Amino acid sequence: MNPQQYSSTNKIADTRYLKYQFYTETIEVSRMSALAFFEAGEKQHKGKRMFWQNREKTFTMVGLGHAHILEALNPHGRFEEVKSEWQSLCRQIVNEEPDVQPILFGGFSFDPLNKTQSVWTNFPQAYFAVPAFQLVIKDDRAYVSIHLVTKKTESFNDFEALRKERDRLIHAAQVSELKKYEKPLVTKRTEIKKDDYLASIRKVTEVIKAKQAEKVVISRALKLDFAKPLSAASALYQASEEQPESFLFGLEAGSQFFFGATPERLVKVKDRQALSTCLAGSIPRGRTVERDTQLGEELLSDKKNRSEHQYVVSMISKVFGAHSTHVSVPKTPKLMKIRDIQHLYTPVEGELMPGSTLLDLVRDLHPTPALGGEPKQEALSLIRQYETMNRGYYAAPVGWIDAKGNGEFAVAIRSALLNETEAYLYAGGGIVEDSTPEAEYDETWVKFRPMLRALGGQLSDES
Ligand SMILES: C=C(O[C@H]1C=CC=C(C(=O)O)[C@@H]1O)C(=O)O
């Protein structure tokens, strides 16, 4: 393997994790396709893989296998559990300042108190893992790290075995020709509880008119059945082909794979600078430049959409005010134009206060009124009462944090849960006083489009 200029070995241990040893070793490798590395883990690491690429395509991470899993069981303290366990595991890194930090990747469910029956059988309320093999591509350089978290005092042989497997994975990813996957063949497309969804919008609008809440996001699901099982690599390939200007993420939990191409950043922290994105308020793209511009201007001056958006800006600004200084919030939103849809968009920035961390921001931001509503608790209880499904990880935070506390979480919308021969797609929208079921229903079709296209959502008899 060439070049291999960079190599370091670190050992992590602390009182809480005293029984564990956390070894890492990183090498720099020739650039390779992240998807090919993901694919290289198809046999040995299936069910334990992760994928992340930021919107700007400047940072890509692929994880294969689990060196350590963090699952939170306490519905009220899951963010704290993940934060303190990760800090415990990281606290005693004997660190030679490696270019690449060990990464913890995963996500949270949308609402652990939602008791509606769920298809998310393999996903606990919080599910994070330190990958055994971690590929990071940043600033045009690629690094592969091995992580070993073990209770054994003698782990030389285990580490040697990991080195062998690492070299095999790198070789396979570098020499294999990246497959051009065929679009999957969809045999059936089912709108789940469509009438109940329409009724729920009517009901929630009434509740909002009665002043029990100001905004509530209601969503629905669409199910696709495939002629044969669809692989996680194929699903990621299709999503990246169809939706290039989004965060691309994938998280395997045994036979289930949650993936998506979302435009929405929840929060990013780099060197204590925090950045969030308020994204709410939508209109389709126009077929011509003129129509597209006209629609964009309509969105910017639309009272209903601006009010939907403002709830998100106010909430995110408030959370940033509690955790950061030098908070900057533009006064008016801009347009974010992506392939199928235009959104109102406002970036919020700040400098983290001492003691505040990325996971504190994730805990306090989730769910923003772009996915929950306003006020937060009333909106969550209305979602529990009226939404026709359990969201699982849809609309929840998915992302990564490294051993230095840097990282990024996206809001897992424009996403789907793949269950071998079937997939559940999710989409929703903000309901305010003057929302109508028909317009909301139409908007969900626009939001389904990225995943529908990726998964070949047209029935075989549709053109
Ligand atoms: C709930 C979704 O989108 C949210 C994000 C952006 C715009 C939204 C809207 O205009 O309603 C939603 O709040 C979804 O895509 O499923």
Write a compact overview of the structure shown.
By secondary structure, the chain is an alpha+beta fold. It has ten helices and 21 strands.
Describe the secondary structure blueprint for this structure.
Elements: E1 7-12, E2 21-29, H1 34-40, E3 49-53, E4 59-72, H2 78-90, E5 103-108, E6 126-138, E7 141-150, H3 156-175, E8 186-191, H4 194-209, E9 215-226, H5 232-242, E10 247-253, E11 256-262, E12 265-270, E13 273-284, H6 289-300, H7 303-323, E14 324-328, E15 334-337, E16 341-352, H8 358-365, E17 373-374, H9 376-386, E18 397-402, E19 407-411, E20 415-419, E21 422-431, H10 437-454
Antiparallel strand pairs: 1-2, 2-7, 3-4, 3-10, 4-6, 5-6, 5-18, 6-7, 8-9, 9-17, 9-21, 10-11, 11-20, 12-13, 12-19, 13-16, 14-16, 15-16, 18-19, 20-21
Ligand ISC binds at residues 217, 219, 264, 279-282, 343, 370-371, 413-414, 427-430, 447.
Describe this structure in words.
β6 (126-138) and β7 form a beta hairpin. 30% of the residues lie in helices and 35% in strands. It has helices at residues 34-40, 78-90, 156-175, 194-209, 232-242, 289-300, 303-323, 358-365, 376-386, 437-454, and strands at 7-12, 21-29, 49-53, 59-72, 103-108, 126-138, 141-150, 186-191, 215-226, 247-253, 256-262, 265-270, 273-284, 324-328, 334-337, 341-352, 373-374, 397-402, 407-411, 415-419, 422-431. It has a 21-stranded antiparallel β-sheet that branches. The model is unreliable at 1-14 and 459-463 (pLDDT under 50). The relative contact order is 0.17. The protein folds into two domains: 7-175, no CATH class; 186-454, Anthranilate synthase (4-Layer Sandwich), CATH 3.60.120.10. α1 packs across α3 (156-175) and α7 runs antiparallel to α8. It is α+β, with helices and mostly antiparallel strands. Bound molecules: ligand ISC. The ligand C=C(O[C@H]1C=CC=C(C(=O)O)[C@@H]1O)C(=O)O binds next to β9, β13 and β21. It comes from Planococcus chinensis. Residues 194-447 form the Chorismate-utilising enzyme C-terminal domain. Keywords: Isomerase.
